[in-house]
């Protein structure tokens, strides 16, 4: 029951974002022509991010389609384990962008990433079964040691991928990248311009 609740909560929260991206309404600032008159320095970090994504409609649609794929995979019980891994990857990326570009939807994207992480954790026994099945089927091939090696690799991947994705999520959220600003960082006021 926990897996169904987590999966459906991700589906319900992610659907408006996927639809907005597919129909190109989430980053709709390209419809505001006055923004093209602004200098880059006039934008906030969030505004610059939004404006940049708004000028890439194909990429926006592609992001929406990937989110829609997550939704479709999570919706059906048999495909939820794959949907959980894909959702963790997608939502970790979205959460990291929202954190580092200072986009206000941080709490929502982090909650979706954490829900996907818990869903992946719930499916660890399923991933282990898949790894064991792949290892068994690899041993059936008449290639001897090569088949066993392939089975071991498959088993390792099925266990390692969720762990790597989880660690990636944790590092992007817990260990912020703290860079010291350069000596020219900040706002400058030009009093006069010397020259010809």
Task: Tell me the series of helices and strands, N- to C-terminal.
Answer: HHHHHHH
The stretches of 5 or more residues where confidence is low (pLDDT under 50) are: none
Largest sheet, in brief, is: none
Q: In angstroms, what is the radius of gyration?
A: 22 Å
Short description:
The protein contains seven helices and no strands. The chain has 196 residues and is mainly α.
Write a structural description.
By secondary structure, the chain is mainly alpha-helical. It has helices at residues 2-22, 45-54, 57-75, 80-100, 106-122, 124-139, 145-174. Helix 1 (2-22) packs antiparallel against helix 3 (57-75) and helix 5 (106-122) runs antiparallel to helix 7.
Write the layout of secondary structure elements.
Blueprint: H1 2-22, H2 45-54, H3 57-75, H4 80-100, H5 106-122, H6 124-139, H7 145-174
Helix pairs in contact: 1-3, 1-5, 3-4, 4-5, 4-7, 5-7, 6-7
């Amino acid at each position: 029951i926990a897996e169904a609740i987590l999966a459906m909560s991700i589906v319900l929260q992610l659907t408006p974002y996927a639809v907005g991206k597919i129909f190109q309404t989430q980053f709709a600032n390209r419809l505001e022509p006055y923004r093209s008159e602004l200098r880059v320095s006039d934008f906030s970090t969030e505004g610059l991010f939004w404006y940049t994504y708004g000028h890439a409609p194909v990429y926006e649609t592609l992001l929406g389609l990937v989110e829609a794929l997550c939704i479709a995979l999570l919706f059906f019980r048999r495909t939820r384990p794959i949907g959980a891994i894909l959702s963790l990857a997608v939502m970790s990326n979205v959460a990291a962008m929202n954190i580092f570009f200072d986009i206000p939807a941080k709490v929502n994207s982090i909650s979706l990433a954490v829900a996907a992480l818990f869903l992946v954790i719930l499916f660890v026994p399923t991933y282990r079964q898949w790894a064991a099945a792949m290892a068994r089927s690899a041993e059936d091939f008449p290639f001897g040691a090569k088949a066993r090696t392939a089975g071991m690799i498959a088993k390792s991947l099925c266990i390692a991928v969720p762990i790597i994705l989880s660690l990636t999520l944790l590092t992007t959220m817990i260990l912020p990248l703290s860079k010291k600003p350069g000596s020219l960082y900040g706002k400058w006021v030009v009093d006069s311009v010397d020259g010809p």
